[in-house]
Amino acid sequence: xxxxxxxxxxxxPPSSKKSAQAHTKRTSLKDENECAMEILRSIPFASxxxxxxxxxx
Length: 57
Hints:
Structural class: mainly beta
């Protein structure tokens, strides 16, 4: 069973291969038509003096 993305490909495994404790399986968002909604994961940022990756949840 997998819980998250692989470092090599950064691909999320299919739901059937995730454990029941995986946060993405426990917290899936659905719209009014019961369709899965994607959430914002991260935003890269940079300025002349700093750079990084901001995670939103």
